[in-house]
Design brief:
This protein is α/β, with parallel strands linked by helices and 262 residues long. It has two domains: 90 residues, 2-Layer Sandwich (Transcription Regulator spoIIAA); 114 residues, no CATH class. 60% of the residues lie in helices and 11% in strands. The protein contains nine helices and four strands; from the N terminus they run ββαβαβααααααα. The longest helix is centred in the last third of the chain and has 39 residues. The two termini are 46 Å apart. The C terminus is likely disordered.
Length: 262
Amino acid sequence: MATPADFQLDETGGQVLAHLSGDWTARGLADAGERLGQALEAHGTIGLDLSGITRCDTAGAFAILRAADGRMTPGQITARPETLRLLELVAAAIQVEPEVAKRPHGVVALLERIGRGVDDLFHNGYGTLVFLGHLLTAVGRSIADPRRIRWAPIVSLSERAGLDAMPIVATTTFFIGAVVALLGANMLVEFGAQVYSVELIGISVLREFNILITAILLAGRSASSFAAEIGSMKMNQEIDAMQVMGSTPMRPWFCRGSPPCC
């Protein structure tokens, strides 16, 4: 349990010595820093005794330095070595002037965006190849030992990705076929070839459009669903938990057995 930060002032020989105690941390600080600053405001040279502090973090160190306001020297501080080191680090950080980043303009900004795009493309391509290598390795090990394959998840994923997408695929294909039939009939009637509308729909929709529409819908529906599911697992640290247990993210959905498996 955190001990609230507190202090006591001891004035001897015209010099004020502040004895600090408790946890000078972000959780136990409260308003102790402001009260210390108000108590030391009317005094000149002061000293600090920090040996009674049990715990101190950057928030507590910043509150102490702000309350002292430069009215002390390093020799007037009594504290453990780690506390003195923390005060030095915070004091050095306070003195650093913030630098405003200069954003490029014109051609330089264009070249910078192109460079970042090429760099991102390289890293994305490398990550894709790494993922493909892991996937091929897992599939190869499963083929070498078919007993490790988990058929129930494979059937479930196939149903979610393919069979459940049939209604939207059929609806979209129907309306696209109707539009193609209407446009084709109106155009062919000018040439007296409206009887070929059936061949137009059969060749264009059944042979060409259906494949393309199905691929686009599966990529937009099923792939986005898988990406959202993987993102949720990543956010909930489920993938990290699998790796800690000695498994790989490729293994649980189609491979079973004791690690190492895939």
